[in-house]
Amino acid sequence: MNQGVTSQASTPVHAEFDIDGRRLSYLDFGGTGRPLVALHGHMSEGASFADLAAALAPEWRVIAPDQRGHGESDRAADYSREGYVADVVALLDHLGLDRTVILGHSLGGINTYQLAARHPERVSAFVNAEGAASLGLHGPNPLAFVLALPYEAPTREALIEGLGQMGPFFGRALRENPDGTWRLPFHPQDIVDSEDLVHGDHWSDWLAGTCPALLVRGTEGVIPAEQAQAMIERRPNTHFAELATDHFVYAADPEGFAKVVREFLRSLDASE
């Protein structure tokens, strides 16, 4: 836990459900507060929102899935925009949430505003952290480096050694297989495929809705300042916060991120 963040959330409960034979896993951080569904980015998992869940409790109950192909969730046949959005709809149905607040980072941020655009009846407000409206239309896949990483190894130590300089980054998230071998919490090829499919021009989805939204940008992140300005100017009812961090805003500045999210969520209460 980061110093200065007071933990009020209970120990998360792990649960899962079936989507056409594919397992989708999620963590429910519990409590009696209003539900907030949090969507992580590439190579991450629902557990990465533990600090945020603690900071927002008890007013908010954070529910964080491992998106398809990540964490404890099964790999999927495809990593299309439609597939990711359909998974979130299935999660909301499973939880019995007709309409709720959604938060997402990077891949999860794009999934969040596309969910709001395509299923506006399900989203009362959303937070988009570092999810661009137009992303990498040309050029190489920035996550292609993962193809050089080993996916599995006989022991945890061997896998960490094989990961080289990425070992410390993924070390705590490694999974043990039923046969005692160890693996990454994602398959490298899935990440590259997913990154390819998240790139593109998503302005039509960003501009489709009018529910309250917060765009959070890292000053050293992936959204150019000019694009962020256009995103808040062109979409009605959109708030903006900027943090002096890299792309990983909620991990690099957990206190600052929790503060701007909390202020936005409280503004929703004031407007109701």
Describe what you observe in this structure:
This protein is of the alpha/beta class and 272 residues long. It has ten helices and 13 strands. It has a single domain (13-136, 186-271), classed as Alpha/Beta hydrolase fold, catalytic domain (Rossmann fold, 3-Layer(aba) Sandwich). Strands 1-2-4-3-5-6-12-13 form an eight-stranded mixed sheet, sandwiched between helices. Strands 8-10-9 form a three-stranded antiparallel sheet. A two-stranded antiparallel ribbon has the order 7-11. β5, α3 (107-118) and β6 form a beta-alpha-beta unit. α1 packs across α10 (254-271) and α2 packs across α3. The longest helix is centred in the last third of the chain and has 18 residues, at 254-271. The protein is globular, with a radius of gyration of 18 Å.
Please outline the helices and strands.
Elements: E1 13-19, E2 22-28, E3 34-39, H1 50-56, E4 60-65, H2 81-95, E5 100-105, H3 107-118, E6 123-129, E7 134-135, E8 152-153, H4 156-163, H5 167-170, E9 175-176, E10 182-183, H6 188-198, E11 200-201, H7 203-206, E12 213-220, H8 225-234, E13 238-246, H9 249-252, H10 254-271
